[in-house]
Amino acid sequence: MAANDIMQLIGSLIWLLAGVGVFIVGMNFMGDALEKTAGGGMKKLLEKISNNRLSGVGIGAGVTAIIQSSSATSVMVIGLVNAGVMTLMQATPIIMGANIGTTITGVIVALKNDYFNLAMYLLAFAGVMMGFSKKEKTKLAGTLCCGLGLIFVGLNVMSSEQAFGNPLVENMFTEVFKTIDHPLLLILVGIIFTGLIQSSSASTGVVITMVGTGVLPLGLALFIILGANIGTCVTALLASVGANANSKRVALIHFTFNVVGTAIFTAFIWMFKEPMVNFLVSLFPNNDPMSLQMRVSAFHVIFNVTTTVCLLPFVKLLVKYSCKVIKDKKEETEKLTLRYVDDRLLSTPPVALMQVKKEMDYMLGLVEENIGYAFTAMDTGSMENSEKIRKNEEIIDFTNSALTKFLIRLSVNVEQSDEKIIGSYFHVLNDLERIGDHAENFHEIGEEMSKKNISFSEKARGEIASMRETVLKMFDISKDAFENLNKQQLPALTALEERVDIRKDELIASHFARLAEGNCNIDVSPYYSSAVLGLERVADHLVNVGYSIVSPTGSQKELH
User: Fold this and answer.
1) Among 22, 51, 358, 527, who pairs with 154 as Cys (CB 3.0-4.6 Å)?
2) How would you class 423 by CB atoms within 10 Å of its CB: exposed for 0-12, middle for 13-18, buried for 19 or more?
3) DSSP string for 424-490
4) SS3 at position 162
5) Average pLDDT of the residues in 520-547
6) Which residues of 32-52 are buried (b: 16+ CB within 10 A; e: fewer)?
7) Is-contact 447 385, C-beta < 8 A?
8) 139: domain range?
9) Averaging pLDDT over each range in 135-144, 514-523, 538-547, which range is the top one?
10) Do 414 and 450 belong together in one domain?
């Protein structure tokens, strides 16, 4: 080969890599925009997680269609399983559905023709222009349009005369595929290529383009597509590193499912390649580029749907197999972890926020539990719940710290409306942690008074009890408001807090009057004052928690 031909070939390969790069960038742009645009829909899908296998497949396909990446769906599922939100039985059908959802990209890619390309170029340009808008929704729509357009810009670069359209490149690939025309070698090519770029959608897009330009025969492309299905498991396998046993089992199930499906189809096509190729040709009989591409896309859909239908009845068997291969490890020491949140969810902010909310609801429940234990200790001097309070407080402190760090990392990649939610969560976390501290203080009051063998007078006990009942009513309203986003009782919350403020002043004045009259034990005085002032501060924090659903700081008491 002449030096000029070698330089031309190198230039074409660089052009080809540039096309692949633009295609992947477009995929990422479109996926991110779809995820943010349809974040609410994705939340609703995941909230409907059940043990119904068909609904699980639907959820997996739906979420993958939204974020345009089966790998991202697998990583998200691993994160949810690691956080204990989803069981293996629930996760397995979702993983199967993700394989179906990812076929949409192939169908979109196969639609490429001259008129469609022109429309996509204009769409990409419109998307860039929309990116200059000050409106968040317009910018998001612009990102979506730009991403979709760039996918086809990348495909056109790959299929241009400078890349696959170059006779030198075509001859090179023809010779390469003559050498590796064995099905197992072609599957290996698909595995390696997809594993390197960590996107089966991108590798499928490249294969579809190669078939459309005539560089790759359809019969060989089928085996590369099968290999791509195994290669896409690399991302999930990497995501399971450092996760718990169940998360590793999800990755293993994902890998096993794709390997079994690939093995079945490989055996079938190996024996009946000509009938399969003829069947695909009969579906799209024309020999124009779009028809050539649609044949590959149709096979991709048939393969994933058929594999899911065949293996769905064996979900229990897959789960049992994964449990036998990956054993549970006995933890030597109990380690504090978040229940519903996992770092792997950072890649899908809408889902991550949904899980943060669940974690905060759990934290609020612990705070409420500790307040109840502490009031009992302060009222009766009983220390039977001391260990429960200590453990709960340890979890509350850990959750506050861990969630704060998680939210800081999450805030980097969210849209403006979610930034306000994250801002309010920061304040709520602080308020809940402070209420937890006050619960500890109430418990210590009861403990110290018990040790000194002193107690409140009947009148003082009644005063604290009445104030405490008001605070508990506030707790119910505040909890309902935060957990269920219920604004209706917020005015009542404000009224109760104002009553607590007035009652605090009245009780402190009444207490000092008793001291002056000699009707109160001076040793009890600091404990009484601490209890009353503590209750008033708890009320302030509860108002902040309740009003966080309408104001990021929780301090604004007007409904909007």
Assistant:
1) 22
2) middle
3) HHHHHHHHHHHHHHHHHHHHHHHHHHHHTT----HHHHHHHHHHHHHHHHHHHHHHHHHHHT--TTH
4) coil
5) 88
6) bbbbbbbbeebbebbeebeee
7) no
8) 3-325
9) 538-547
10) yes
For tokens 């220390």, what's the residue? Answer: 383
Give the 3-state DSSP-derived string for 89-101, with helices as H, strands as E and coil as C: HHHHHHHHHHHHH
For residues 448-472, average pLDDT:
86
Q: At 461, which CATH number?
A: 1.20.58.220
Work out the pLDDT band at 463, boundaries 50, 70, 90. confident
Amino acid at 87: T
Pairwise CA distance, residues 435 & 418, whole Å: 26
**Kind plus residue range of the DSSP H or E element containing 321:** helix 315-325
Reported residue count of the chain is 560
404 pLDDT more than 90: yes
Q: Measuring CA to CA, which residue among 9, 16, 5, 79 is closest to residue 46? A: 79
Q: Is 381 exposed, middle or buried (0-12, 13-18, 19+ CB in 10 A)?
A: middle
Write down the pTM of the prediction.
0.69
- 121 and 233 both lie in a single domain: yes
Inter-residue contact 237 to 318 (CB < 8 Å): no
Which residue in this structure is represented by tokens 């059940």? 50
Q: Give residue 66's Cα distance to chain centre.
A: 13
- What residues contact residue 263 under an 8 Å CB cut-off, 6+ apart? none
DSSP 384: T
Of 13-22, 87-96, 295-304, 352-361, minimum mean pLDDT range: 13-22
pLDDT digits (tens, 9 = 90+) for 35-94: 666 555 665 666 667 678 888 888 888 888 777 677 777 877 877 787 677 788 888 898
State residue 559 phi and psi, 5-degree precision: -75, 145
245 with 354, same domain: the answer is no
Are 50 and 131 in the same domain?
yes
What pLDDT does residue 281 have? 92
Phi, psi of 225 (to 5 degrees): -60, -40
Q: How many domains does the chain have?
A: 2
526-537: pLDDT as tens digits: 888 899 999 999
368, 274: one domain: no
Same-domain status, 133 and 251: yes
